[in-house]
């Protein structure tokens, strides 16, 4: 049962991390096409390390779910940490560049 919980949390963490990476990619693409987009592109470049690290940690947590119960618990801790980090970073980036529609 704990393995199923660990797998679900790890998958959610990977999805959150990939969401952050995808948002940064879209933002970088839009900044490259727009005149005066250099400050946004520079901000995105500064965030790639965080996004990549969180994604790697999430994938590592998912990999750990194939072990025993102790590894499942470690996987849950890593996945929750990396998923929370990804979500917080995504929300802060969205808040910084949210345009009023």
UniProtKB/TrEMBL annotation:
It comes from the Bacteria. The chain crosses the membrane at residues 6-27, 70-90. Keywords: Membrane, Transmembrane, Transmembrane helix. The keyword Transmembrane helix applies. This is DUF2516 family protein. It comes from Amycolatopsis dendrobii. The lineage of its organism: Bacteria, Bacillati, Actinomycetota, Actinomycetes, Pseudonocardiales.
């Amino acid at each position: 049962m704990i393995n199923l919980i660990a797998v679900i949390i790890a998958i959610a963490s990977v999805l959150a991390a990939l969401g952050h990476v995808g948002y940064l990619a879209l933002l970088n693409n839009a900044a490259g096409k727009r005149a005066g987009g250099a400050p946004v592109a520079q901000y995105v470049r500064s965030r790639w390390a965080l996004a990549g690290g969180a994604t790697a940690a999430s994938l590592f947590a998912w990999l750990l779910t194939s072990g025993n119960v102790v590894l499942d618990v470690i996987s849950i801790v890593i996945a929750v940490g990396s998923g929370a980090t990804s979500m917080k970073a995504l929300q802060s980036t969205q808040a910084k560049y949210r345009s009023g529609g």
